From TrEMBL:
Keywords of this entry: DNA-binding, Transcription, Transcription regulation
Domain of life: Bacteria
Pfam families assigned: HTH_18
Location of the HTH araC/xylS-type domain: 149-247
UniProt-recorded name of the protein: Helix-turn-helix transcriptional regulator
Transmembrane segments: none
Originating organism: Fodinibacter luteus
SMART domains: HTH_ARAC
């Protein structure tokens, strides 16, 4: 029989969105870089020192904007209970990070786990499943209709510019009022709220990719004022951009 659980570390080159489906529950821990994940009509960002929990058999779109390194832990569906969500991204506490490191010494194999690593994987699942009940707020709805998904794509492409809702609506062939109603109905938030979240998500990607100054990142994602950028970033993440970057070391 294959092992009840196993772990491995892997580095990834930048890649376009690809559908990922695995037959085990999958704990993905980012150690460097950032991954974009999409499932259940929502888009998440997985920056360093965060983890994603993916339910077995459910498709997830994965994109890699910059080179990334991750630690992966896979659990057989008969070894642990199913996660509550198809996908959740959350912070790992020190205990969970220590357990991920400890489980890293047990790769995929045909023989069952000995008692000690079995206990470590069991403990990791218990801690990670509990943490996943409180996912990160750094998420953007993906939209259902072609018009809203196109509007989201165009908005993201123009984050560094003075993007206007009227221009986005015109580009998708709707009057602003109609597109605004679509956003409320499909996403549960306004276009302006989505824009703020997209800018923070892209800022986190830049923070994770290197040591670019925060002021430069603020301008790159469309903020003319550092104070406005800091306020928007803190509102969503609970931290300033500078402090958030320090958490990438786990």
């Amino acid at each position: 029989m294959t092992r009840e659980a196993f772990a491995f570390t892997r580095s990834f080159a930048p890649a376009e969105p690809t559908e990922l489906v695995v037959d085990r529950h999958y704990l993905l821990y980012a150690s460097s870089g950032a991954l974009r994940l999409e499932a259940e009509g929502q888009r998440w960002l997985l920056p360093p020192a965060r983890a994603a929990l993916l339910r077995a058999g459910r498709p997830v779109l994965v994109a890699i904007p910059h080179t990334a390194t991750t630690a992966s832990v896979l659990f057989h569906v008969d070894f642990v209970p199913p996660p509550v969500r198809d996908l959740a991204v959350f912070d790992l506490d020190p205990l969970a990070r220590a357990l991920v490191a400890e489980c890293g010494g047990w790769p995929e194999a045909d023989d069952p786990l000995p008692a000690y690593p079995r206990a470590m994987f069991t403990a990791l699942a218990a801690v990670a499943w509990r943490l996943a009940e409180h996912p990160s707020p750094v998420v953007v709805p993906a939209g259902r209709s072609a018009e809203v998904r196109t509007a989201l794509r165009l908005t993201e492409e123009r984050l560094g510019d003075e993007v206007r809702f009227e221009d986005i609506a015109g580009a998708v062939g709707l009057v602003p009022r109609s597109l605004a109603r679509r956003f409320d109905a499909e996403l549960g938030m306004s276009w302006r709220a989505v824009l703020r979240r997209m800018r923070v998500l892209q800022a986190i990607e830049h923070l994770a990719a290197g040591d670019t100054p925060v002021t430069t990142i603020a301008h790159e994602v469309g903020y003319g004022s550092l104070s406005a950028f800091n306020a928007a970033f803190r509102e969503l993440t609970g931290a300033t951009p500078s402090h958030y970057r320090t958490t990438f070391t786990g």
